[in-house]
Amino acid sequence: MKIVVAIGGSILLKEYDCKKFQEYSEILKSLASENEIFVVVGGGKPAREYIGVVRELGAGEAQCDDIGIEVTRINAKLLLSALGDAAYQKVPHNFQEALEYSATGKIIVMGGTEPAHSTDAVSAILAEYIHADKLINLTSVDGMYDKDPNKYEDAKLIKEITASEMIEFISGKDTKAGTYEFFDMTAIQMIKRSSLETVIANGYDSENLIKAINGEEVGTKVISK
Description:
Helix content: 40-55%
Distance between the termini: 22 Å
C-alpha cells in the first residue's frame, strides 16, 4: 500500500531526546519493506515556543506560520537522521518534490509547506496528491473525542465519524499559527473529497501505527462522507 503517516511533533519531542525518533525509525523501516511510506512531521512544543517569540516581536500570522514550518522541517531532518539509508535524505518543500523523491523507493519525510496549512492539512493534501491508500494521523490523544479529554474527565472517544460530521464539529475553531485544535478543517475537506481512508490514533504508543495499517480497531476511523 501507499501510506501517509502524520506524526505530531509533541509525540517525537515530548522528552527532547532521540528515543521516539529511534522507535519510529525501526517501525517505519519495517513497514517500508512492503509499503510505500511518506511521513509528515509536526512542529510540537518547539514550534509553538518559537511562534510565541516571533508573535511578541509583532510579526503577522503568515510570518508566524513560516517560523513554525521551519521547525517542522528541522524535526523532519531529525527523523531522517534516525532512518539513515532507508529514507531519501532531503526534506521536500512541496508535494511535487515529495512525489519526485519517492521515485527512489525510499521513505519520504517532510514537514510543513506554506502558511495557513497545518501539518494535518499537509498530510491530507499529500495523501490526495500521491493517491495514497491510507492516511494515519498520530496525535497526543487516543482519537477524536466529543470534547477535550485533557479538560473533561467524561469525554468519550468517538470510534467512527464521517468527514462531514467532523467538519461540523470543528467549524469556527481558532486557526492562528501554533494553536492546538484537534484537527484541521483543510485536512478534513481533503479527506472528504478524495474518499481517503483515515485513522486518528495515539502516537505515544508507536504500535498503534502498525495496528492502524493492519486494519485493527484503534483510535478513530474517519469515513469520507
